[in-house]
Amino acid sequence: MQIVQNILNAVVFVSDESGNSCGDGETASTSKQRLTAQTLSCITCGKTFSSQRRLETHERKHTEQKLFTCTRCDISFPTLQEKKLHSQEHRDKKHFHCEECGNHFRSKSNLDSHQRIHTGEKPHKCPHCEKGFGRITHLKRHVRIHTNERPYECSQCGKGFRDSGCLKSHQKIHSEEKLYQCSHCDKRFRHKFQLIPHERMHTGVKPYLCSHCGKSFSTPSSISVHQAVHTGEKPHQCSVCEKSFSRLDILLNHQRTHTGEKLHKCSQCDRIFARLDVLRIHERVHTGEKPYHCSICGERFSQLGSYKTHQKKHAEEQTALESS
What we know:
One of its GO terms (biological process) is positive regulation of DNA-templated transcription. InterPro entries: Znf_C2H2_sf (IPR036236), Znf_C2H2_type (IPR013087). The protein is mainly α. The protein has helices spanning 2-10, 28-39, 52-63, 80-92, 108-119, 136-147, 164-174, 192-203, 220-231, 248-259, 276-287, 304-323; strands at 68-69, 76-77, 96-97, 104-105, 124-125, 132-133, 152-153, 160-161, 180-181, 188-189, 208-209, 216-217, 236-237, 244-245, 264-265, 272-273, 292-293, 300-301. Strand 3 and strand 4 (104-105) form a beta hairpin.
């Protein structure tokens, strides 16, 4: 830079009446800028740059100096732009492969978390109880049960939720849109998890098998309730009347009998129910749905209780015929 300063000091400007330097109309300021720009040139290829930072970035390509390293695969790059382009390839591809089940993941950390499903490892321990989790996000969600923290709030009604998934599911209550239609009847649902068990009523599929007695069930919640018959476990206790339940959702439904809270509104009329299963039975009044089918006479029923009462009549008739 001393050479540049000497050159600038040696430049002699002859001013004319308009204040311009002699010859080409260039001012002292613009001449200095031009000469400075010309000196910011790459000594290897001669390319010029407008700033020292851009020159230094360019020169790394010649020197092979690689300052920017990919955190996923440890490959280094001379410029940040090249590293960003490389990182995009990781986002577009799933390089990390699980040898147990064949699933692919975009990062090693996601693969490590997934593999705990196979190993059963649960390194993230709850500070309030003895429960452990394979993912830190699952632990954070669980801890909110102890702290009663509900950071996700519905903008429509103000109700709070422990995780964003529950909030999204809840918000569909405020919407009339039902995207999921049964392939066997005209009934539609807001959530896919509601559609799947409904369709099993038509198909008779019961994929959940009890390891104690071999009985099969159509939903995970059904088999959980059933297995409590074998184990007798009821870990969820009501703080008002001390009654215990095998599942948390059953306890929450029970507690509404104390609070009078009713969250489940019928989409066809103004009735509101404390329990979702009671709402579903009620909605059959509007839809005309009769999912319970008698295999003997073909009659259909909207409620399980009516269906069982009907079947008892056939059993009594059969017993009367055999005894006569």
